[in-house]
Amino acid sequence: MTILVTGATGNLGRLIIAALQERGADPQSIVAGARDTAKAAELGVRAVHLDYTDPASIATALDGIDTVVLVSGSEVGQRVAQHRAVIEAAKDAGVAKFIYTSAPKATTSDLVLAPEHKATEELIAAAGLPAVILRNNWYTENYAADLARAAETGVLAAGAGEGRVASASRKDFAEAAAVVALEDGHIGQVYELGGDVAWTYSDLAAAFSEITGRPVSYRALSVDEQLAALREAGLDEGTAGFVAALDAGIRDGALADTDGTLSRLIGRPTTPLVDGLRAAL
């Protein structure tokens, strides 16, 4: 079996490659797909040029590949076209397993990020690929910048209200991808993956306090207050609106669900919030 991991030099992709090796995969069976293969040299596996915007590079990268792990692109607004190129190449190559890192409840969620993931899942289904969908909740590492800010100000300000987030560390999600890639029996499954604990932003502020050694309080902002604060911080109108919409989704429960699927897949509890934040530093 030969496994191709796309976006291999990104934060999640490189961890998936490490997890595959930690779980016994022969490094020679792993292929790192990256726009800049020089950046993949440290991963310890064969690297191939793969650019989501260059279909020819994707087709070449998939030559001889049995399993594809499509790590979703990071360019919001361009991901559907980029993912379609990989899906079409995988169909043409006749891959035996296609794994996609999606978003929580992608096909029904109101989360502002969900539509591109929903469209990608629909493309995978339409292509008839033997697929496994991994709907990853928030990465704990997403809050590293908030932690740094809180260390200076003593305040965590957000528009998430009392919404909960079932985050886990990227390493946890990467291990799940490795398990699904290496084991039989997962094709056709859609896994909703999240941390074992769904925490509030008050809990997040308490975690910040524990790590920084100074009191950190959570200030819940209204939408208007948050937009004003983001503009004052220098964000353009579109970006400010996007951030506020993300927090609104959290407030309304888009990231609150957790049923233990992630910890069952990886065979251990997910990384606790404080530990994940410390590692992110």
From TrEMBL:
Transmembrane segments: none annotated. Residues 2-224 form the NmrA-like domain. It holds the Pfam family NmrA. Gene3D superfamilies: NAD(P)-binding Rossmann-like Domain, UDP-galactose 4-epimerase, domain 1. CDD domains: TMR_SDR_a. PANTHER family: NMRA-LIKE DOMAIN-CONTAINING PROTEIN, QUINONE OXIDOREDUCTASE 2. This is SDR family oxidoreductase. It comes from Microbacterium algeriense.
